[in-house]
C-alpha cells in the first residue's frame, strides 16, 4: 500500500503586503482556516502550479503540511504556526489583526 | 560627522529612482519575481516570514539626532511603530508594504541614509567600535577609515557579484568592541613610534564554520589601505569557491589555501593595484577626517552627578553599570539598554527613538551610536547632565541598568520573523532576562555575555558568547544547543559545545544551573564567568548541565 498522503495547503506571501496567504477554492485568504485542504497528491501539485502562475499576486508559493484531525486545517510544524499567527515575542501581526 | 557631497546625494537619489521604477515594473507584471529579487536585495529589501523587511545601513553605527528622528518617522508611518537594531549596526523594519518602500528610501535619502549593499554578495555595511571618538583607550577614531572603506566599496564595479557577502569592521582601540576577529576583514588602527598604520586581519567569521581572523599584515602603512583591501577582495573574488555557498566565504579560502599563500597572492596583486591609486584617495581621506573632528567639550562642575550618585540608589546602579570612561575630562559614554527585562533585544519604539534623539540633541553633541550588542550609545555626555538624562530614560523604559550583565543578551530575530531561522531566539532571551531579574541576581553575577542565534548562520553571534545558545529544529521541535567559553573581544575565542541540546522548556533552567555552578566555583566576586570557565574548563559546567549523566558516571 502506498504511504498515505499528508494533507496539505498551498501557502505563499502576498506580493504587495508581503503577508502570509493561503489558497482557497476560488482565491486567497489570510486565514489558514479558510484554506483548501489538499488530500490528493496529483491535485495538490496541480493547485501549486496554478498558484505559482499568479505572479502578479503571490510570491514563493509552496505546499505546507497541515493537521486536519480537528476538522479545520491547523499547522503541522511550528514554523507554519508562526506564519499563521505572527511573532510570539509580543502580540502583533496576524494574531491581533485577523479577529 | 560625515556629510554627503553632491555626488553622494545624487548617487543615492538615482538609485532610489531606479528602484522605484523596478518596483513599479514588478507590480505591473513586467518583471518576474526571479528578475526582481536580486534588484530588491541590492536595495536591502527581503521577504521574511510575515512580511517584507527593509534593512537600513547605519554606517559604522553613527547617527545624528535628525537621522534618529527620521528612523522613528519611518517606524511610525510605514511600519508598526518600532524598529529593530541588529548586530551589524543596521536597523530593520519588519512590516513595510512593497509599494511604500520607494517612499521609505526617499525619506532615508533626505537624512543621508540608504539601504544599499545591506544584502547580496557585496561588501556590506562597514561597522566600527560604537565608542569611536569617545573611548579613553583609543589610538585614533576608526570612523574616518570606515567611511573611506564605505565609499570605496559602494557600487565598486569589481565587487558587485562576489562568491558571497563580505563584511569589514574597524576599531581604533586595543580593546576590541567591534568583533573585528569575526569579520572577513578586521582592521585595527595601531601606532608605532608616532606613526599610524593598520593591523589587518582576514578570514574571520561565524556561521556554519566559525573561524577567528588571522593577521595578514601587522602594520600596513596608512596610504596603502585601499589598494591592500582591494587586493585581498580581488584575490578572493577570483579564487573563492562559487561551487558551494557554504564554502564561499573568505574564511574557507584562507583555511583551504593557507594564510601564507593568500598573503603572497595579495602582495602580488598589490604590486599591480597600488600604482592605480594615485593619492586621490589620501586627499579624500584627509577631507573625511576633517569631518570627524571632536565636538567642543565643555568644562563644568560634576556636582549634580555626585549628588545624585550619593542620594539615589537607582541612579547609582545605572551609573555603575551603563557608563564607560570617556577621553575628555568630566565626560562619560552612556549606554542606553534596549534590553528591558522581558522586552525584545534591540527593538525601540518610535517614541523611544525620539526620546534618545532629543537627549542627544540637548545633552550629547547631537550624536548617537548603535552598538553591535543592540544597544544605543550617547557617546559624549557631560557627567553633570547624567541625572537629567537618567530621569528622562526612566520615563520611557530606557533606564535598565544591565549593560554587560546576563540580561544584556544579543538575540537575532529568529523564527519570530526570519525566513531562514530554525527556531526562535527572542522568547528565550525574554525568559532568561525575566528569570534573572526575578532572582535579583544579575548584579551579583557580574559580566556575562549570552548570545542567541535562531539558526546556524549565527547572526546572534552565539559562537562568541560566554554562553552561546543555538536554536535548531530537531524533528519538528525547537531544540537549543549550548556553547561555553566564547569571547568576542581582542582575546577572541569560539565557544565549545557543551553537549546535547535542550527543549524550549528546559533551556532556561539549564542556563540557571550553569550560573549556579559559576557562582559556586568562582574564587571571588571579581572572577567573571569567562575567567572561571577558562580556569576550570568544561567539566563543572557540564556536570551542572547534565546532572543525570554525572549520576550515571558516578555509579
Automatic annotation (TrEMBL), chain A:
Top-level taxon: Bacteria
Pfam families listed in its UniProt record: DUF2849
Protein name: Sulfite reductase
Species lineage: Bacteria, Pseudomonadati, Pseudomonadota, Alphaproteobacteria, Rhodobacterales
Automatic annotation (TrEMBL), chain B:
Cited InterPro entries: NIR_SIR_4Fe-4S (IPR051329), NiRdtase/SiRdtase_haem-b_fer (IPR005117), Nit/Sulf_reduc_fer-like_dom_sf (IPR036136), NO2/SO3_Rdtase_4Fe4S_dom (IPR006067), NO2/SO3_Rdtase_4Fe4S_sf (IPR045854)
Ranges of residues in domain Nitrite/Sulfite reductase ferredoxin-like: 52-110, 345-395
Keyword 4Fe-4S: yes
UniProt keyword terms in alphabetical order: 4Fe-4S, Heme, Iron, Iron-sulfur, Metal-binding, Oxidoreductase
GO MF annotations, alphabetized: 4 iron, 4 sulfur cluster binding; heme binding; metal ion binding; oxidoreductase activity
Domain Nitrite/sulphite reductase 4Fe-4S: start-end pairs: 119-271, 407-545
Record protein name field: Sulfite reductase
Organism of provenance: Pseudosulfitobacter pseudonitzschiae
Listed Pfam families: NIR_SIR (PF01077), NIR_SIR_ferr (PF03460)
Signal peptide: none
Amino acid at each position: 500500500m502506498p504511504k498515505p498522503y499528508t494533507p496539505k495547503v498551498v501557502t505563499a506571501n502576498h506580493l504587495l503586503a508581503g503577508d502570509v496567504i493561503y489558497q482557497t477554492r476560488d482565491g486567497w485568504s489570510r486565514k489558514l482556516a479558510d484554506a483548501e485542504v489538499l488530500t490528493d497528491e496529483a491535485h495538490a501539485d496541480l493547485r501549486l502550479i496554478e498558484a505559482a502562475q499568479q505572479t502578479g499576486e503571490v510570491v514563493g508559493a509552496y505546499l505546507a503540511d497541515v493537521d486536519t484531525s480537528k476538522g479545520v486545517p491547523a499547522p503541522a510544524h511550528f514554523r507554519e504556526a508562526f506564519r499563521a499567527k505572527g511573532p510570539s515575542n509580543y502580540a502583533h501581526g496576524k494574531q491581533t489583526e485577523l479577529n | 560627522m560625515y556629510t554627503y557631497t553632491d555626488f553622494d546625494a545624487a548617487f543615492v537619489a538615482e538609485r532610489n529612482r531606479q528602484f522605484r521604477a523596478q518596483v513599479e515594473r514588478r507590480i505591473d507584471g513586467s518583471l518576474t519575481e526571479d528578475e526582481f529579487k536580486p534588484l530588491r536585495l541590492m536595495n536591502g529589501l527581503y521577504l521574511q516570514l510575515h512580511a517584507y523587511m527593509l534593512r537600513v545601513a547605519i554606517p559604522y553605527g553613527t547617527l545624528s539626532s535628525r537621522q534618529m528622528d527620521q528612523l522613528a518617522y519611518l517606524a511610525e508611518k510605514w511600519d508598526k511603530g518600532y524598529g529593530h537594531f541588529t548586530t551589524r549596526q543596521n536597523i530593520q523594519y519588519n512590516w513595510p508594504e512593497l509599494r511604500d518602500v520607494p517612499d521609505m528610501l526617499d525619506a532615508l535619502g533626505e537624512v543621508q541614509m540608504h539601504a544599499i549593499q545591506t544584502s547580496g554578495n557585496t561588501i556590506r555595511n562597514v561597522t566600527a567600535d560604537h565608542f569611536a571618538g569617545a573611548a579613553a583607550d583609543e589610538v585614533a577614531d576608526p570612523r574616518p577609515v570606515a567611511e573611506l572603506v564605505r565609499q570605496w566599496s559602494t557600487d565598486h564595479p569589481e565587487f558587485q557579484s562576489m562568491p558571497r557577502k563580505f563584511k569589514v569592521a574597524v576599531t581604533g582601540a586595543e580593546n576590541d568592541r567591534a568583533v573585528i576577529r569575526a569579520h572577513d576583514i578586521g582592521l585595527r588602527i595601531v601606532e608605532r613610534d608616532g606613526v599610524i598604520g593598520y593591523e589587518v586581519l582576514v578570514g574571520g567569521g561565524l556561521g556554519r564554520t566559525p573561524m577567528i581572523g588571522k593577521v595578514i599584515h601587522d602594520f600596513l602603512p596608512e596610504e596603502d589601505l585601499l589598494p591592500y583591501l582591494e587586493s585581498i577582495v580581488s584575490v578572493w573574488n577570483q579564487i573563492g569557491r562559487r561551487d558551494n555557498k557554504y564554502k564561499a566565504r573568505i574564511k574557507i579560502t584562507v583555511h583551504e589555501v593557507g594564510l601564507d599563500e593568500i598573503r603572497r597572492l595579495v602582495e602580488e596583486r598589490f604590486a599591480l593595484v597600488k600604482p592605480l591609486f594615485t593619492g586621490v584617495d589620501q586627499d579624500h581621506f584627509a577631507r573625511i577626517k576633517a569631518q570627524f573632528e571632536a565636538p567642543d567639550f565643555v568644562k563644568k562642575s560634576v556636582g549634580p552627578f555626585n549628588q545624585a550618585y550619593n542620594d539615589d540608589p537607582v541612579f547609582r546602579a545605572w551609573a555603575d553599570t551603563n557608563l564607560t570612561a570617556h577621553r575628555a575630562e568630566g565626560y562619560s559614554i552612556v549606554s542606553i539598554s534596549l534590553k528591558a527585562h522581558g522586552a525584545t533585544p534591540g527593538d525601540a519604539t518610535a517614541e523611544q527613538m525620539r526620546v534618545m534623539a532629543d537627549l542627544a540633541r540637548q545633552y550629547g553633541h547631537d550624536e548617537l551610536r548603535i552598538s553591535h550588542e543592540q544597544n544605543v550609545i550617547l557617546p559624549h555626555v557631560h557627567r553633570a547632565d547624567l541625572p537629567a538624562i537618567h530621569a528622562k530614560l526612566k520615563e520611557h523604559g530606557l533606564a535598565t541598568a544591565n549593560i554587560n550583565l546576563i540580561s544584556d543578551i544579543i538575540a537575532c530575530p529568529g523564527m519570530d520573523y526570519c525566513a531562514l531561522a530554525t527556531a526562535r531566539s527572542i522568547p528565550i532571551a525574554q525568559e532568561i532576562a525575566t528569570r534573572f531579574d526575578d532572582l535579583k541576581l544579575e548584579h551579583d553575577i557580574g559580566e556575562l555575555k549570552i548570545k542567541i542565534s535562531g539558526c546556524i548562520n549565527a547572526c546572534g553571534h552565539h559562537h562568541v558568547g560566554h554562553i552561546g545558545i543555538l536554536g535548531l529544529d530537531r524533528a519538528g521541535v525547537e531544540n537549543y544547543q549550548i556553547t561555553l567559553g566564547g569571547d568576542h573581544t581582542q582575546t577572541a575565542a569560539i565557544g565549545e559545545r557543551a553537549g546535547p541540546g535542550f527543549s524550549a522548556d528546559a533551556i532556561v533552567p539549564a542556563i540557571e544551573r550553569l550560573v549556579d555552578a559559576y557562582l559556586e566555583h568562582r574564587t571571588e566576586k571579581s572572577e567573571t564567568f569567562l575567567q572561571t570557565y577558562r580556569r576550570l574548563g568544561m567539566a563543572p559546567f557540564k556536570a551542572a548541565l547534565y546532572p543525570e549523566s554525572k549520576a550515571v558516571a558516578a555509579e
